[in-house]
Amino acid sequence: MSIGKVAALAGVSPTTVGRVINNERNVSPETVLKIRKIMREVGYVPKPPALRRGRKRVEDTPLKHGVVALLVHGKDLPIVMSSPIAGLVFHGVESALAERGLSMVQGSLSADRTLLPPMVTKGQVDGVVVWPHLNGLPDEIVEALRPYPVVYLMSGQEERLPGDRVRANNFRIGQMASQYLISKQHHSIAYLAPATFQINLWDRARGFHAFAQQAGAMAQDVYLDFLGGDDLLDLGTQGDEIIEQNLIELFQSQQKPTGLFVTCDALTAKMYPILKKMGIHLGSDVEVVSCNHEISLLAGLDPLPASIDIRGESIGRRAVEQLIWRTKNPATDGFTVIEIEPQLA
Q: Are residues 184 and 252 in the same domain?
């Protein structure tokens, strides 16, 4: 299989296929998806950039080791293992590396430095992608990573070891949710999120309120305190009771909402049966817009809520692009924050 045959099947020029393979940004998203789909279907795998014909871009020059480390904060590891959105982000990282002929080594970050992948401690990787931050980890771990360029996924600012960051555009997500609900003629709306998400996702709430205020709608926040439990897929009975109590208070208040923005699909899936148990008719008494577009978590919900796609795979891919750029430009002053635009699914 050749580029020419892929181009013929896609109805585009070989040049356009080449641009998609090289991850250039002057091809429409629809065409990119079409070409990548055909490449998967016919089993076409491009050569690593360093082996392709023609002039090499700076970003395509081979890295010293050809290996990138993907490290997950140990505290978040159980959540990441069960989270569809984390799976999409990591798939984006892995795919972007494979397309460039690069390898990936995975590991967890904990207080024990010996648990770092040996290739990291021995200086045998070219850079590190971290999910989501280094908070709470000892200085020894930070120092072990300091020789490398680091890109953080989905995190806020890291003080001890600053680096580039790639994340969802949370302010725009909040705006989009508010806009969606108000367009459906909901004038009293609410934003629901776990209390532990408040610090990392405060921009999401800010965007939600900013659009509501501009449109003259009434907006409020409800933060659910799960007493330290972060895994929404494994809350148990106590978590359900906390959700139910907060929802009862919300719907008995004077500002009873008719539109809800739930900050993640895992929480939406937990809330749906509780709302029905309370006698609230979804779709008529209240409308829900969710977030993350984790289809496996929303399947079976009736009515199926709208969900904002934060484009996890694009976040992962963009992190690889930024890490490679940083390895070529280590002396550039300052660090970059890249926010991926969401889409309403």
A: yes
DSSP 8-state code for residue 55: P
Q: Are residues 179 and 304 in the same domain?
A: yes
133 or 233, greater pLDDT: 133
Cross-sheet strand order for the sheet of 218-224: 218-224, 188-194, 259-262, 287-291, 306-309, 343-344
The pair of structure tokens assigned to 331 is 């002396």
What's at 148, amino acid-wise? Y
On whether both 297 and 185 belong to a single domain, the answer is yes
> What pLDDT score was predicted for residue 58?
45
User: Please, what's the b/e burial string for 235-266 (b: 16 or more CB within 10 A of its CB; e: otherwise)?
Assistant: beeebeebbbebbeebbeeeeebbbbbbbbbb
Q: Does residue 143 sit in the same domain as residue 245? A: no
Its domain, for residue 287, covers: 170-309
Look up the pTM and report it: 0.80
Alpha helix locations (H) across 22-116?
Answer: 29-42, 77-82, 84-99
Is pLDDT at 53 greater than 80 in this prediction? no
Write the single-letter amino acid at 291.
Answer: C
Task: Give domain status of residue 94, yes or no.
Answer: yes
Tell me the pLDDT tens digit for each residue of 279-338.
Answer: 999 999 999 999 999 999 999 999 999 999 999 999 999 999 999 999 988 877 789 999
